[in-house]
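sorry for the late reply, my laptop died twice this morning and i had to redo everyting from scratch. anyway the thing you sent over, i finally got around to it. pasting the sequence first so we're on the same page, its 669 residues, then the predicted structure underneath. double check i copied it right bc i was rushing
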Amino acid sequence: MIGRGDERAVTVQIGAVLLLAILFMALALYQVNTVPAENEVVEINHNEEVQGELLETRNTIRSSHGGGSSTSQSVTLGTAYPTRAFAINPGPMAGTLETEPLGKLSIENANVVDDHGQVSDEWETGYTTYGLTYSPGYNEYHNAPRTIYEHGSLYNHHYNDETLVVGGQTQFVVDDDEINIVTLQGNYSETGDRTVSIDPRAFSTSSNTVSVASENPNPLTITLPTANPDHWDETLSETTDHQIDSNDESVTISLDEGVYSLRMTEVGVGDATRAPAEERVEYLATIPEGESTTILEFRDRFNNPVRNAQIDAIDDIDDLTDGIVAVSDLPETTGNDGRVRIDGDHSTPVSGNTYTWIEETDSDGVVEIDIEELPDDLEEDNITVSATAVSDTPEQAKFSQLENIDLDAETITIQSMQLESEEGGFIIPREDLTMSSADANTRVHVIAVIEGEEANGNDGDDGENGGDNGESDPPTNGEELPDGAVAFDDENGNGQYDESEETYTEDDLHSFDEEIDLVIVNDVSSHGTDASTTTLTIDPGTTVDAEGSDNDIDLETEQVLTAPETTVGANGDITLDSGSEIDIRESHISAQGNDNDIDIEAEGNIDAMDATIESNGDISITSDGVIDVSNAQITTKGNDNDIEIDGSDIICENAEIDASGDLDMDPSC
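ok and here's the structure:
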């Protein structure tokens, strides 16, 4: 017989077992249903986070285009799940970020319409480029997309083959009349759940553009290698009116007839390395500057300048400079802008038998070249003349031709024409050209090549005007300034003092306001300088110094302010203000007094590469354009003095910037 108390004990035990079973069932349901659902939310949030990080990486790569700076970016490959007391999480999910070769990008049927040279062979041969892909390994978010960067665009590729761009960006390969090419180089691969760093590095970039158009009758085409041709076909069809064709590996854009501005950039990641400067030079661009100066820009295969290249070590340098300049007449290296300037009043003997001029046509489009300095006893059969008119805009189509060589009068006559069509407006030279007009007041670059033994004077001997190998004496650097003068008004724009030009003393520059092209060639040491001019050039090696305490230097220009490799010092404030661009490369600018500031401001670009800028007060460098402070040293030495650098973009590779107060850089660098 069982008593009542025993019955109650059994009931409690059964209830406890049932409660425990319910608890285990709830935990099992939580483990099977709730944990995966919550973990999927964690993974979705991580995927959104990593897309944002990859968008920043894409923006960094794109900012390199046109001369922008590159910065390191962090990408979170995986994520961990929240800690659970009564449930089990899977291990942390891992993702993979890696580059993948896409193939070769090519530009075909492209004709350069300016006079700076071309690299069309390289365009058609193609440029190898890579894509950058993030592949997640989520445990629950099974339909997560792969996120892919190609050609300046970031998009998600879903497993149903649907593709969607990230962050509302648009493609920029073809934007109206602009072509933007950004190639990516290097092997990079990281897998795990940690945060990794990817460091895009600009290998070739600048603000250079090359004007190109189709070679009729075939259209100019751009072929983009891609892992997703359908995505690019759809994207380009939606954003342009050009013909788009695709295959399994690439998409081709056939551009409508017209002139396009081409800009190209190369960016490296991972193990990518940049070849030495001397190996990267592909061609020279000749750019007339003023009436008597030619700029030689040493360019790579992306049409960008190659900086600080040792000229005599450049591959095929003799072939590159043939007919332009003798290698022996060039400096040891290209400049920080990849350029070399050739100056001269008239003819410059650029090699043993080649001479060049830059002159401006008259109202009839005619220019007459004085050839007194050419060798004696020259026969007309021994001289070949070519002429190129310099177009101010890509839309203008011009040509210049030889009209006459008069050895008795020692002149060469050139006629420059501007091409037009019956419908009006400028066109590219083509078969349906119907009329032309005189090209007045334009610069013409003339090259004369002398052949045969007459080029060296009588019977191969040196002529009266010639030196070794028949070279004429090089042009002088202008007249010496009168005693006491430190600057002059460069009325004819040749950068050299001529006797008829106005000169100025240190006292004149103490308070100076004239709409002239002022050139300072001698050191200035006074009790302050306050000069306002149209343009200002301070010759390299020149010092402008304000003696005494609280004496300021204030230099203001409406147009370009050029002062590379100069020294500007004061015990007061220093102000450089330009309505255009400022060039202070390799210059030393120092405000040495207590709490004296340096203010550098321009509406255009500021080039302060390799400059030293130091102050016991604040330093402000502001521009509406790009600010380049690569390799510069910028320091405030006072107590709590600030540095502000503010531009549309900032290039600060290897710069040393040290503020005793706040440092404000916009955009960040």
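Helices lie at 4-63, 120-125, 229-239, 277-280, 317-321, 506-510.
thats about all i looked at so far, will dig more tmrw
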